[in-house]
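Continuing the series of single-chain predictions for the mutant panel. This is the parent chain; the variants come on the following pages.
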Amino acid sequence: MRRLSRKGIATLAVLLFSLIFVKGAFPQAMSHWSNAELMGRAKHLQQQAAEKGNASEILEKYPHHFTMLAFRNRSGGGEVHQNYADVFFILDGRTTLVTGGEVVDPKSTGPGETLGASVKGGSRQEVKAGDVVHIPAGMPHQMVLGEGDTVTYFVVKAEETR
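Parent structure:
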């Protein structure tokens, strides 16, 4: 059996230390949210949305994506995320999703983020509880709600490189 030199032991110790104590060295724990838990959390968002029509919260951040819970009781403006795709899991309610076209009166709200009044010239698709939607990075989109409609949805924002 071969013995490790002091340099070898030191190297091994540094490697073990980094594996044990450096954040991200091991895979993160699995995340799980039941539908009942998400809908319970959404009640808080419904109260927050009373004035401006929407509210959301980040649930968890990961190296290349993050998850959110969102509630809307009014139509939103047009938006584009240059670096993130959106995956919506509609938990409750309904909305018309407009995708494609162009954002009307666009304004930059941060690096790679654009918001505007609406989306012009896009395709319209009704989505409801149980539906899943993927919107690629760079695609304009808008949620349009009918009178009295609401929508609660789970979002995965996934970093995309182009």
